[in-house]
Write a structure and sequence with these properties.
Blueprint lengths: L10 H6 L11 H25 L4 E5 L23 E5 L34 E7 L8 E6 L3 E7 H8 L6 H6 L3 E13 L8 E10 L4 E9 L7 E9 L1
Antiparallel strand pairs: 1-3, 2-5, 3-4, 4-6, 5-6, 6-7, 7-8, 8-9
Length: 238
Amino acid sequence: MKTNICILIPLLMLLVLACDNHRPLDSDSENQEISARHHNANAGVNATASAAGNRLIRLRVPEDNPGPPFYARTARPFIYHDGNWAILVFYRNPDQIPANFNLLDFFHMPGPDGPGAFAADLMVSGHILTTDPFANPKQTRFSGNGDVPVWFVPWSVMQELLSDDTLTMAELNAADVVKGSAVRFTETLHPHGGHPNPKLVMGGSGALEDGRGFSFNFVGMDHPGEPHKLIHIDISID
């Protein structure tokens, strides 16, 4: 899998695979309803692409786009850490993530068993800039809807959890995890495949469950043929 600087998935997929409900599909009628919505979304995307040409298109999340089909920025082989703490920022409600889903697989796409990551409530909002709804965007920008879940895991503990190439919510909830919420959160992503200089800039601050404050910011870069590079990271816990 491409490193976690990669874009979500092509925008068409995001537009047509969104689900209005937050539960698995369990009947033929539900599948037919979703198929009808996909057909209508396809028509809208085709019209947008035809009219837009090379102009920059701004898609709002979640009004025009359901957001990323993943839960947290946890794509293997890269977990953000400063040598003391690993940090997990959740784009979707961690309480709604399947307990045994491998977060290192990153994407949880819709399928016969349900809407995948779209079943979990989105904790961020923002916009996507693109010139082609069928291709990777030029930029995505997100900010928190309120309290964005942020978990800190001692790096030594995280290394043990990663040793079998899996990372699940069941493992995290059983581990020595420090949980908090970011009242301030921003992210700007220049995606690989959509921007000539791929880069991720993320930062936030808030409070832990025990009342201590925290802040973090980091910058990562990704260039074709080179490993993902963490340019800067700062994690502070009071």
